[in-house]
Amino acid sequence: MTPANARPDLPPDWLAGDVETFDATSADGTPIHGYVTGRGDALPLVCCDGLGCDGYIWKYLVAAFAPTRRIVRFHYRGHGRSGAPAAIDRFSLESLGDDLESVLDTAGLGRAVLLGHSVGAQVIVDFHRRQPRRVAGLVPVCGTYGRVVDTFHDNPVSRWLFPLVRRLVGRYPEQARALWRRLDSDLLYDLATVTDVNGRLVHREDFRPYFSHLATMDVRHFFALAEDAARSDNLAHLPTIDVPTLIITGERDRFTPDWLGEVMHRRIPASELLVVPGGSHTAPIEMPELINLRIARFLTERLAQPTLDGVSAQSAVA
What we know:
By secondary structure, the protein is of the alpha/beta class. 39% of the residues lie in helices and 14% in strands. A 6-stranded mixed beta sheet has the order 1-2-4-3-5-6, with helices on one face. It has a two-stranded parallel sheet with strand order 7-8.
């Protein structure tokens, strides 16, 4: 049997092949950059990143599902190749939902299965609240329904420490930018794999790009979005979610602890839950085969879609 954290054979550039880029325009005029990969008539998958991310977490999912369906990725405002609005108050989860809507429109997608990692889980749940007819299914991954700072590391210190850091960034922007650029370091990577990421499962080449991208972001944009994610709360909306939902959590996730997935599972009608053994906040690149098989089974059983080529969904681990 193939180990659960085995890496599928990937081309040197895992986005190589049938990849199209596009540029959308969000509701407030912000330019949003996106990618379409894969082919097939099955329901498309649209991937929503975590805060400060530009797609690294979907590496193995794209490789696994591209043979059977279209996969759309995009960069949030202020991330990657997307633009940024001039006004700092236009960085909010609602604005990220506007970005998502513009991506669906530009890609010609009426409905899609939405996957959201970390803060992306908040984005897709909030998008369902606002635009339910455009959502065929939800897959929140290592995320929560709201107030992410309150549960960060299961430590109440974060509730008062985060606003303090946010004020310091606003008061000393130049110094904050200088420190922020130092995030792209091997020392920080090594620290993360000891404290927050399962270093036994993650591969350096898979996780290292996160720090490289994060260091290029404007620190003010990061904290403006983080502050809004800390306020946003869709707990009351969960019982009204009426589409097939697969919740994926990591057993060792300290950013969004796995009990949050249990809360979502209990409140979202007929939802399913996968707790990844030993998985941390980067579970999709730690145990990609397990997660991809489980998503394949979910799509087959709940959305009447084909499984991965050559892989029986019945063999997926619940």
